[in-house]
Amino acid sequence: MPWIILVLAGLFEIGWAIGLKYTDGFTRLWPTLGTVAAMVVSLSLLGIAMKSLTVGTAYAVWVGVGAVGTAILGIVLLQEPANAGRLISLGLIVAGIVGLKLATPG
């Protein structure tokens, strides 16, 4: 269960990272409120997951899920470049997340 909670925390991290783009420097009310809500949920879920998982693993996976998801949404929603170097690098992050899962007991 802590791994599911951790992945959910990472998904909410994607939400607030992308949400930051739409807040326009926190000058738009609704995107700002959504972004702040996603931040609170993300950090809360991360804290819950850390009750059972090691700090290093939980934090690295949380950041990795957020980074990969945010980069993919940047490509899809914001027309950011999807060159081979970026895609290979994202694949390496995913490999690191999988490696941490496999190397972590429980």
Automatic annotation (TrEMBL):
- Residue ranges crossing the lipid bilayer per the database entry: 29-50, 57-78, 84-103
GO molecular-function annotation terms?
transmembrane transporter activity
Which terms does the UniProt entry file under GO BP? xenobiotic detoxification by transmembrane export across the plasma membrane
NCBIfam families the UniProt entry points to: PRK11431.1 (NF008512)
Record-stated family: Belongs to the drug/metabolite transporter (DMT) superfamily. Small multidrug resistance (SMR) (TC 2.A.7.1) family. Gdx/SugE subfamily.
UniProt protein name: Guanidinium exporter
Q: Name its species.
A: Luteimonas marina
Q: Cellular component per GO?
A: plasma membrane
Localization, per the record, is: Cell membrane
Q: State where it is primarily located.
A: membrane
Superkingdom of the organism of origin: Bacteria
Membrane topology per the record? Multi-pass membrane protein
Keyword Transport present in the record's keywords: the answer is yes
The answer on whether this UniProt entry bears the keyword Nucleotide-binding reads no
Which keywords describe this protein according to UniProt?
A: Cell membrane, Membrane, Transmembrane, Transmembrane helix, Transport
